[in-house]
Amino acid sequence: MPILSLQAARDLAEDALVRCGTARAAAASTARALVEAEADGLKGHGLSRLPAYAAQVRSGKVAGAAVPVVTRPRPGLIAVDAAHGFAYPALDAAVAGLAEAARAQGIAAAGIRRSHHCGAAGRPVEALAAEGLVALLFANTPAAMAPWGGSTAVFGTNPIAFACPLPDRPPIVVDLSLSKVARGSVMAARQRGEAIPEGWALDADGRPTTDPAAALKGTMVPLGDAKGTALALMVELLAAGLTGGRFAAEASSFLDAEGEPPGTGQLLIAIDAGAFGPGALERFGALAAAIDAQDGARLPGARRLALRVRAAAEGVDIPDALLSEIRALAAPDGAPREHRL
């Protein structure tokens, strides 16, 4: 399987997006996010997304030239209109504004509307934790889960992410989908031509399936049964109802170039770790140390960090078919171009 350095992978992804009609700044932000997800082992949010992204720019489902518009409706609030472009530039703008606002006021929130797939939800909260902030993210996605006891999808898989700074070590990062597994994992299995485990998804008739294509036409099984759908409802209200984004059932798919822009939303909340007085970081560190001290226990994200270090040194492996497809997108004349280590 071919291996690309992280820089080569970013250059390749950026070139592909620009060739398909994305503005250079938005392409760079999006490529950076995809490759960082790839490096962290989150391949469902990595370069496997790029062909669909490129097709959506070409069809106009994603506005390739969009520039996020940032306003301040209240002192502690940041409103970001993603303008139907990729979510990553809007998330970058939200993180930059929140870091300043939360340090000044103790707490701040950013709402993003007319957005798109936010990728690995842990990325923006980890960036805020690196600034000494406790951070939460709620994102709604196109309909993929039915309410408990129902049969029609009205909730997305609706990721929730949390990050907390620690003294002298990387932050704790919790990133989870409210389906039993992220829908991106099903999409990646379909691209690889592999079956999915039973219990991940239901087909369009509500029957358990191991066929990823049937799963993508059906619904995802919620994490924690009824509790998962209750949390998905909460995310819909926070990420879309509050921000002005579209609810899951109103949003078009992130996976194809059909229809109008999805227009989903994200909500980020940042709290200065020192807002209530000194000592919080040390207490966070003490709890982390207590977990580390147990044999077999580990903090969330430990595997991801190890993979990140390895990818920085060795690069990332990309399946031949996917690499050929991305290289064709990136080439000026449609012929593959090399992006070497």
From TrEMBL:
Family the entry assigns: Belongs to the LDH2/MDH2 oxidoreductase family.
Question: Pfam families per the record?
Answer: Ldh_2 (PF02615)
Q: Which UniProt keywords apply?
A: Oxidoreductase
Q: Give the protein's recorded name.
A: (2R)-3-sulfolactate dehydrogenase (NADP(+))
Under InterPro entries, the record lists: Mal/L-sulf/L-lact_DH-like_ah, Mal/L-sulf/L-lact_DH-like_NADP, Mal/L-sulfo/L-lacto_DH-like_sf, Malate/L-lactate_DH-like
Species in which this protein is naturally found: Methylobacterium isbiliense
Could you tell me which Gene3D superfamilies the record lists for this protein?
Answer: 1.10.1530.10, Hypothetical oxidoreductase yiak, domain 2 (3.30.1370.60)
Keyword Nucleotidyltransferase annotated: no
